[in-house]
């Protein structure tokens, strides 16, 4: 060690936040381990660091005894008196160990400790930086691909965009600039992992906060989002200002705000007639959130009309929705999409029945569950 090492300690502490005391402690433990390997024990070893010279010194502590059984731990009274006439039985005497290996161990340990501390510090900085952006949108560059992920460079780390987090039909090339939603940041033994998505429902919410001032300032609040990325999304909104129409604000004049959002995505679907993928657009339905759950479900089933919503007394999150016979297919949606999105949006398990099916069920006197009907006549259609 040397004064140059002390300067290095100081620079590392100032620039990297690695404390000098941590390095000294790690080097001390390495020297203790080296002593243990050489002599089979380390209990008698005392290691001191000289702040002025930057040197580590290794001492053996021996007890003054009448008869010596272990020369590494003990010294005879006769030999002790030869050193100083002041020594007595039971005194502890320090002897400096000076083999060259301790100097090499100290230097190597300091280097290893510094490198390890820098790796940990860099990892901690990376983790904290991206943890702050969790649940936010970030811009990045497509770097590379493999069978599991698209790797997106966010600056100081490659984020992982998995297949399930991608939008069906979207195709990217290396060096493309894309926006992604950071939904999870992990610190594990292998390093920091950042997981991003373009299909996450929260990405729609964050984009609306970016693009629509009334959402950003809280005048209009997005209460929930249900999404089947690349195809259809339902967004429930409410206004905190009676003079501001929540749905109109989100949609924008001529649908301008919705177009801003959908332009961020580039889904495609396979066209059997053309035998190729064709561009498509994600549809976004905006509905009004209301505190009354029956009315909220009524709104969420749109564009289908609803006759009544019946809640299960035994399961507070289960609802039966009765719709006109002619609206059953519309209420259920293609491959059940409409009712599925409505269920995710409202947080209720929703069963759909046509009016005639419900009448038959009533006539058979085998209701699916106890009914608590909600009068929807007052709901403006």
UniProtKB/TrEMBL annotation:
Q: In its UniProt entry, what is this protein called?
A: Transcription termination/antitermination protein NusA
Q: Which family does it belong to?
A: Belongs to the NusA family.
| InterPro entries (alphabetical) | KH_dom, KH_dom-like_a/b, KH_NusA_2nd, KH_sf_prok-type, NA-bd_OB-fold, NusA_N_sf, S1_domain, TF_NusA
Q: Where is this region: Disordered?
A: 359-381
Which biological processes are named by the entry's GO terms?
DNA-templated transcription termination; transcription antitermination
MF GO annotations: DNA-binding transcription factor activity; RNA binding
List, for all copies, the residue spans of the domain called K Homology.
229-306, 315-373
Instruction: State the UniProt keywords alphabetically.
Output: Cytoplasm, RNA-binding, Transcription, Transcription antitermination, Transcription regulation, Transcription termination
Describe its assembly. Answer: Monomer. Binds directly to the core enzyme of the DNA-dependent RNA polymerase and to nascent RNA.
- UniProt key word Nucleus: no
Gene Ontology cellular-component terms for this entry are: cytosol
Please list the residue ranges annotated as the S1 motif domain.
133-199
* The organism of origin for this protein: Streptococcus australis ATCC 700641
**Role description:** Participates in both transcription termination and antitermination.
Query: Where is it located?
Result: Cytoplasm
């Amino acid at each position: 060690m040397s004064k140059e090492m002390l300067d290095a300690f100081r620079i590392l502490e100032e620039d990297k936040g690695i404390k000098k005391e941590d390095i000294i402690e790690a080097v001390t433990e390495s020297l203790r381990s080296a002593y243990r390997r050489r002599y089979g024990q380390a209990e008698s070893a005392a290691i001191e660091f000289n702040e002025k010279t930057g040197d580590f010194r290794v001492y053996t502590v021996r007890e003054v005894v009448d008869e010596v059984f272990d020369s590494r731990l003990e010294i005879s009274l006769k030999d002790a008196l030869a050193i100083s006439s002041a020594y007595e039985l039971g005194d502890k005497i320090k002897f400096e160990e000076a083999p060259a290996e301790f100097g090499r161990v100290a230097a190597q340990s300091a280097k290893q400790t510094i490198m390890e501390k820098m790796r940990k510090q860099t990892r901690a900085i990376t983790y904290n930086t991206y943890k702050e952006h969790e649940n936010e949108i970030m811009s990045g560059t497509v770097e590379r691909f493999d069978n599991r992920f698209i790797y997106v460079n966010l600056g100081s780390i490659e984020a992982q965009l998995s297949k399930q987090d991608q939008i069906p039909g979207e195709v990217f090339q290396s060096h493309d600039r894309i926006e992604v939603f950071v939904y999870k940041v992990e610190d594990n033994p292998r390093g920091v992992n950042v997981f991003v998505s373009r299909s996450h429902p929260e990405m729609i919410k964050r984009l609306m906060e970016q693009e629509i001032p009334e959402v950003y300032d809280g005048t209009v609040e997005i209460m929930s989002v249900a999404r089947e990325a690349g195809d259809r999304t339902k967004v429930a909104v409410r206004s905190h200002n009676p003079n501001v129409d929540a749905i109109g604000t989100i949609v924008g004049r001529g649908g301008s705000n919705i177009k801003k959002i959908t332009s961020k995505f580039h889904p495609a679907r396979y066209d059997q007639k053309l035998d190729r993928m064709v561009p498509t657009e994600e549809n976004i339905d905006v509905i009004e959130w209301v505190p009354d759950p029956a009315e909220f479900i009524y709104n969420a089933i749109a564009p289908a009309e609803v006759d009544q919503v019946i809640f299960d007394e035994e399961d507070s999150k289960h609802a039966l929705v009765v719709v006109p016979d002619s609206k059953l297919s519309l209420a259920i949606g293609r491959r059940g999409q409409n009712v599925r999105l409505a269920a995710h949006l409202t947080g209720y398990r929703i069963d759909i029945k046509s009016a005639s099916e419900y009448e038959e069920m009533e006539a058979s006197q085998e209701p699916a569950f106890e009914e608590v009907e909600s009068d929807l006549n007052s709901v403006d259609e």
